[in-house]
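An example makes the point: we let one protein speak, the chain in one-letter code, the fold tokenised, and here it is:
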Amino acid sequence: MSTEYADMPRGVVDVLRLLGIRELFPVQEKAIKAGLLDGTSVVVSSPTGSGKSLVALMAAANTLSRLPGCRVVYAAPLRSLVYERASEWRRVLGSLGYRVAVSTGDYDRVEPWLGEADAVMVTYEKLDSLIRHGAPWLRRVCLLVVDEIHYVGDAKRGPVLETVIARMMRLNKEMQVVALSATIVNAEEIAEWLGARLVRSEWRPVPLREGVLHGATIYWGDGEEQRVEKLSRNPSIDAALDAVSRGGQAIVFTQSRRKTLELAEKLLAYLRRDSRAKRLMVPGNVEEYVEELRSRSEHLELNTKLAELLQNGLGIHHAGLASYQRDVVERAFRSRVIKVIFATPTLAAGVNLPARRVVVDSLYRYGGGGSKPITVMEYKQLAGRAGRPGLDEHGEAVIVARSSEQAWSFLFKYVRGTPEPIESKLASEASLRSQLLAVIAGLGEASEEEIIGVFEETLYAKQFGNPRHAVERVLLQLEDYGFVEEPSTSIYRATRIGRRVTELYIDPLTAYRMIRGLRRITSPETMLPELLTLILWSPDAVHLRPPRSLHLELEAEAEDILNMLGFEYPQDYTEMDVAIAAKALYTAQALIDWVNEVPEDTILAKYGVDPGDLRAVVETSAWLAYSASQLALLDNNPSASFLQDLSEMIKHGVKRELLELVKLPGIGRVRARLLYEHGYTSPEQLAGLTPEQLAAMLKGLGEKRAREVIEKARAEPRKPRRRGDIFSYLGGSG
């Protein structure tokens, strides 16, 4: 379809002209013919790179130009995906005079400024939080774009997404829904649930070949065979080098972080032995990326290793890396500076990073007590990363088989196989109790029939029937917790504390345990291990994994803590809960080191974790500590003030005395301690310095950032100095 003569709304034409698009891809044509620009809801199922993102952008521009006063919401599962898409929307819609806002964190803020934007881009969880807080502008949403709709079948994010969609459709009866995914087998069922038309296309701008490598031969799904030169004695590495030798780039997906580094180092060792291969892997202008890593004062050992890999045309990518490290690797790969990345599957779920060839080193993943094969859908997501538009005539996805039996099994199950259908995961008790409380709090006061009516609009109800019995069971549990009350027969409403629990975006079980346990914490300052164990004894927490040698010791100590906090076995906890409490205690020990300002690299080495792991623990634990402070306030618990400060201490990794300093721009835990040691204990004391003086004191800060710090310090209102509060576990004075 030519965009020059097509009868399209002005806003859509403006978008296409801004992007320089003259011809639409097949899936875009099909979406328009299905009624995309008439306000019809659509489910778009087409391969990665086929143009689904433009379908969403056209729908947004059409809504905003055709329906003044309406709002557009875009929701995706991952922050990285939201920010990647927001960059494009801001560039395009911003040029047309529309305001685009992004919000992905802080689940206890309504953020009224979001209501001033024309398009709001969020994660699923943030949208859920906004609904729970009753953000008034949500009633003006005329278009909801749901990216990666197949996540509705994900055990963790699926129940959130499913309920969010159901509540948004109930809130805005005429709202258009545009749902996107690369892999939906039962797309008709999803479309029927959403009251949408199905738009399906198998077309890709870069055709995809899939095959299995066994020995030195790739057996392609179309029946052809291709020889791969055996170079390194590792088939995954050989498959990657084969792609590079043909002018391409490769991503090798492995089953673990350890394996990413292991394979990268094997290839590095091979390059040192083979000059021909080394010349093949010579990177482009890599120095700016290397310098970016070396300029950091933390993660020195890991950054040194990453820099060495980059200088040899290699990279690794997994969730354990710090966000800036992943960003460096992604940018270097996009600019074709590096040739091969060894990655875990998290790369396929995040940003768009295509390669000529995707090599799947293993189809097995660790989890749930053992190693299990991945689903066909998961494999197809990995394979979808193959093929760089404008650079490759076709993309290649190659599975490595270690035996002839595996080769034929992989060929028929994965290469020629069909992804599994999406199934609702809303039935799990943990998911249902959180979403049920949110629904009741949102309705205000509702009958059992009204409550069940919301869940009748979910995918779960469509696939498995009326959820009445599950809802009734969880209702009784929420009443026992004191979060829901029944003022009259079959009429329910959330209690004051129940409403706060749903606003805080924590599991009701987490909240119930916190409230009970905090009543037994008589001195939070001196009972920090017990307090943090309680906060982290939660399905919401992120835990560090203790070494096996400590399991029995930690479990015994954790059980003593649970008993001290007033929980009794087996009424209040199971043996599984003791194991979780043991992980919570171990994680609490790491957090105590963190707030005591132990250097980050020391903590990483001591607990055997990666930077990304520590960051995940810190972010989640800070939120849980804040949530505990809010529940303590409602329960008139004197620990509330300490818990609020503890949340900030965890967030910044400092003792209480540095809390005001670390809130200044560019002043992290290390610089804040340096200022304190120079006698600057509060922001107002910095107000008299010149930018030159501050920059000289804090090497690497720079005069521009120093000026920002001083301006912020001068704008800070004077606060009374705190006295006392000596913490035996924090080693500092307030």
